[in-house]
Amino acid sequence: MRVLGIVSETHDTGLALVADGVPELVLEEERFSRVKRTKAFPSHAIKAAFDDRGVGLASVDVIALPWDIGRFRTMTARALLRHFPMSLNLMHARAHVPQRNQILLLEHYIRKGLRTHFGDVALPPIVQVGHHDAHAASFFVSPFDDALVLVMDGFGDDASGSAYLGQGNRLERVWSTPVFNSLGLVYTFVTEHLGFEGFGDEGKVMALAAYGTDRLLGRFRDVVHAAEHGGYTVNMDYFSYDTYGQIRPMKAKFLSTFGPPRRRGAALTDQHRDLAYALQKVTEEAILRLVRGLLARFPSRHLVLTGGVALNCVANGRVLAETGIDRLWVPPCASDTGAPLGAALWHTHQTCALPRTYELKNAYLGTASTDIENETALDAAGLDYEVMPEAALVGRVARDLADGRVVGLYQGRFEMGPRALGNRSILADPRTLAMRAKINTVIKKREEFRPFAPVVPWERAAEFFEITQQDPFMTLAPKVRAEKRSLIEAAVHVDGTGRIQTVTAEENPRYHALVSEFGRLTGVPVLINTSFNEQEPIVARPEEAIACFRRTDMDVLVLGNCYVTRHGRSVAPTDASGEHGAVIHELKPRAQRPDARDREPRPRDGSTE
Ligand SMILES: [Fe+2]
Q: How many domains does the chain divide into?
């Protein structure tokens, strides 16, 4: 049975294909349309998915949507009636965020989109899966046979937090908290208050929090109260998002207590840093209390955390360290990116009772390009390159990294979810702070306060980090061991933590070999890993990787088995179209191609590309 999970009109538009419980592809539309956080129907992703699998709509048995629209309608009607007519504002939203009336019409939009894409064909049956049920269904691809599953996000169709007991191929919901009692929405609206984008920039606030003090913590503890049985209650004296939605989420009391909103781009002050600190700490405290309360009622050694709030790796790390569980698993697509996958998994296992056969050990469920496509793209761009055997490529790139060069690594299928995990990554040497400044200002053009994530071979992780379990999906932020911090300065956040990714040879051989070889050369088996993009969705296709390489100051591009460099590049001029060209001064001769393709290398004269 093949299930197509799909969602449209929300901030993580995309799809998943799942065959008998095995995920085949998980694709976000933004990777293909190149429009960040698009809400458009995922027609590009559909084409990419069906092309990749060589199948058509006829091969899909069921279409699963990650919203129960009946439940959502009931919840919305109640919310509208409670504060009518002001509550009509709940139906309005800014362009990039979920809009209630669009979710209410989700099935209509999906049918319309599919008909536009495929023509007037018979559609497979469409089923609706509860939003939190879909999040919770990641349990079915977790390493656990049994677990407590906690879902927290902005809002679902009938709750903003839910807990489930997972056993084999069954999930049973045992707790929920109402839609407007939402830790996720509190975090999102304070993120917006701090001048960042809600439903997307929450990670920036988490990073900023480490620079704050506890000056506002006492006051912020009045914003989220402890409730019975370990729960929490959002104090709506501070918020009006249950009445005015995104139009006016804060009440005057919030503004008088915590100050006016920061204008986007304005200077960050101690007030902003301290508010971020208070928000983060109170969020951590609420999650810890909740998990402890749930574990007291439903003892378990295993915990699955999912929903957008589970992107908070600092809170996740505390949950693992401080609640007595043996193991925590957070899927790489905890946010709504994973909702189509979850809807398909729920239908497969919970509804149809198929047994579980698959464990999600890596996140590489995007599309890939072939060697020929990679080389054709490089040729079209006029870039010289070498096709290198694997061992030589790893050796050369490790030396580049040790020499302080910044490398774009494009290989295999891209990662699902918001994190680059070694297949669409920018890699660099973590040993000096100067590298952080270089990547922040020259390549990524992002805020200086944001940390860079370290990647380390799993077998060396405990030497550098206080870590007790593998973390292939970058979901924890353990402390960097005090004696090692000076060795990996650029990867240590101001609070002494690192947003770690552990890598194994089984799940990503080249990535593992690269970090290991860098360790052999330098004594430090750790690299900085950040997503391969520049103010855009993470690159998906070779053309986008090449474009990003050319318009930034990245030193080396690895595109499949192709190696591209521009050592000693001079200042890149801008041509009439406004695009930066690259001047290549040091071009390596093209190596003998292992596959003996017959195209000759194009001569280069070092002039502007
Ligand atoms: Fe969600």
A: 3
